[in-house]
Amino acid sequence: MISVVVKNVVKETRDIVRLVLGSEDGGALPFFEAGAHIDVHLPSGLIRQYSLCRLSVEAQYYEIAVLKDAHSRGGSAEVHQLKIGDILFISAPKNHFALVDGGSRHSVLIAGGIGVTPLLPMAQQLRHLGQSFEFHYCGRTSETAAFTAALKNGSFADNMHFHFSQEAESGRMEVSRVLSGQAEGAVLYICGPASFIEEVLQQARALGWPEDCLHREFFSAPALNEHREGNDAFQIKIHSTGEILHVAADESMFEVLDKHGVFVPVSCESGVCGSCQTGVVSGVPDHRDVFLTDKEHQAGKLVMPCCSRALTPVLELDL
Ligand code: FES
User: Fold this and answer.
1) Which CA distances in Å does 187 have to 15, 110, 277?
2) pLDDT tens, 233-258?
3) The pTM is what?
4) 3-state secondary structure (DSSP) of residue 295
């Protein structure tokens, strides 16, 4: 873990705050690539993932931007209380949302609201590399959307398309128009609320976009994981010891493993971050995460014990 100090707190909009984090000793922080995020360990013990929202000009700073979410489980509200000088622990940057082929194929970046955060450094990098891209930013109004002024006036202003649903001159994004007629090999990168991502991906698939050209980053899991009613109990088998553990309908695999002293690293506990990824030796997982790809879900060789369950009476884990 890396210890950082909150160097600055900037109110980007009424509900979005940007934090500038710097190393305690003023030294350089680990290098990161566009699309990367960090785990932020909040003072309460909560761990949350936030995208690094700007390529660093100076290597000793990271920036994150956080929306105060009315449905927050506590993380975003806590971030909004942080002050200059507070100390935080963060992970080294991780990247599950990197530019494909160094961004050499035409990139279509689509941001929904605060989903702009990982896409902003991608646009900076694509501009820097001189690669072809277009950046669609969707939100309700320019006032509630972070970084609007910077994007309108920045180095890639010509690549920007604003779609503010409550502003007559821009209006809601016509998804099919944006996705139709793109050059062969174009790659879509999308980040935003789960329902927004699903809607755009569905249209992309309907228009014939190949699956390996669709890249998405969820910043919260769909509601799917939050409802425990209707779940069935099942058993997990620990491959290395043969031990069988019972997972009740209202428990997660992670809770049961933790209770029995079987260590699995967790972070988001909602199927978003990938920290708890575990191999499956036998049985069929009931995937509830948004981290693994559709292909990986179908293959059934990996599972996220923080949120996923089992479709078979026993799920044998490679632990
Ligand atoms: Fe994040 Fe399981 S802890 S996916």
Assistant:
1) 31, 11, 26
2) 999 999 999 999 999 998 999 999 99
3) 0.81
4) helix
Is 271 in a helix, a strand, or coil?
Answer: coil
Residue 289 has pLDDT above 60, yes or no: yes
Task: Give dist(CA 232, CA 263) in Å, integer.
Answer: 24
Interval 38-60: pLDDT, tens: 999 999 888 888 999 987 778 88
Amino acid at 67: L
CA angle 198, 203, 205 (to 5 degrees): 95
Q: Where are the alpha helices (DSSP H) in 169-214?
A: 175-179, 194-206
- Unique residue bearing structure tokens 């029995």: 260
What percent of the chain shows pLDDT beyond 70? 95
Query: Where does the pLDDT of residue 156 fall: very low under 50, low under 70, confident under 90, or very high at 90 and above?
Result: very high
Q: Which residue has the tokens 């646009």?
A: 123
How far apart are the CA of 271 and the centre of ligand 1, in A?
Answer: 4
Is residue 139 within 8 Å of 161, Cβ to Cβ? no
Atom of ligand 1 minimally distant from the CA of 266: 3
Cβ pair 271, 253 in contact under 8 A: no
Phi, psi for residue 178 in degrees, rounded to 5? -65, -40
Average pLDDT over the chain reads: 90
Strand partners, 41: 47, 89
CA atoms within 13 A on the CB side of 282: 8
> How many A from CA of 307 to the centre of ligand 1?
7
User: Phi-psi category of 118—alpha, beta or left, where left has phi over 0 and alpha has psi -120 to 50?
Assistant: alpha
Closest atom of ligand 1 to CA, residue 306: 2
Task: Indicate the Cα dihedral angle 197, 199, 204, 210, nearest 10°.
Answer: 60
Whether 179 and 155 have beta carbons less than 8 Å apart is answered as no
